[in-house]
Amino acid sequence: LAADGREARRLAGESREALPKFLDARERSEIQRDLAHYGALGKTREALVERFKSENALLRNSTGYFPSAVEVALPTIRDEALVNAIADLRTTTLRLALQDGRAIAQQQRAQVAMVAALAAARLGIDEQRPVQVLLAHAQAIEDHKGRTEQLLRALIEVALDDARAGVASRYANAYARAERRTNVFGSFVSGLSLVLLGIATLAGLRLRGAKAALSRANGRLEIAVQERTAELEAEMARRARMEIELRQAQKLEAVGQLASGIAHEIN
User: How do residues 202-246 score in pLDDT, each as one tens digit?
Assistant: First the structure.
């Protein structure tokens, strides 16, 4: 039981730190909540085990010392009724230490009260001390036995296995949903790949046609450029001739003006 509690806390802590990436937000929250509950149950079981160990140790100590306390007390008692009552108490107390049962516990409590009453009535103060010791251990056995039984019932009621199964089931369901999503996504990717392949093929055909058209356009453009270059060269030659003729006309005009001026001066 203690090992199960420790293992539960360890698994819960490690699982919270390493949740799988395929979980969505809702699944992650649910599994974290289940793991926290699982770890808390493990911690509860560990605490109950520790309490049980303490109570059981006290029960074993008193059970081990009780027969010796009876053997010490009986030789000092001369009252036959008290001796018989102590003998009956010894039998019932040892039965109680070994068996579970409320009826035995009630019988043992009644016998403890009877021995205490007889000892108080028929023994002196010094003679009562050994009886008080065995009565203290008898009461301790009854107290610790009841507590150990309660702790055992509480340990059995800690639903650690159910919590572990719940976490495993939620993990399995989340994994199945993730697997279905993966399959759907894989089919979608396959279809999308085919569509993209068709688009790429069509684009390649169109690109090849565009390349051919571009080559033809480049050829026509080169011819047009050559023709335009020839026209520009002819125009530039014509303008050069016109500039020469214009300069010659300007020179003749200057000579005419000079000659006119000289003729005027001569006149």
Answer: 777 787 877 877 778 777 878 877 888 788 788 888 888 888 888
What is the number of other CB atoms lying within 10 angstroms of the CB of residue 45?
Answer: 22
* pLDDT tens digits, 104-142: 889 989 999 999 999 999 888 888 899 999 999 999 999
Rounded to 5 degrees, what are φ and ψ at 107? -60, -40
Q: Are 111 and 92 spatial neighbours (Cβ–Cβ below 8 Å)?
A: yes
Dist. CA 147–CA 139, nearest whole Å: 12
Please report the DSSP string for 209-229 in residue order. HHHHHHHHHHHHHHHHHHHHH
DSSP string over 162-182? HHHHHHHHHHHHHHHHHHHHH
Q: Which of 97, 86, 84 is nearest to 134 (CA)?
A: 86
Scanning the chain, the segments in alpha helix (DSSP H) are: 2-17, 25-73, 80-98, 102-122, 125-157, 160-266
| Contact status, residue 74 vs residue 117, Cβ threshold 8 Å | no
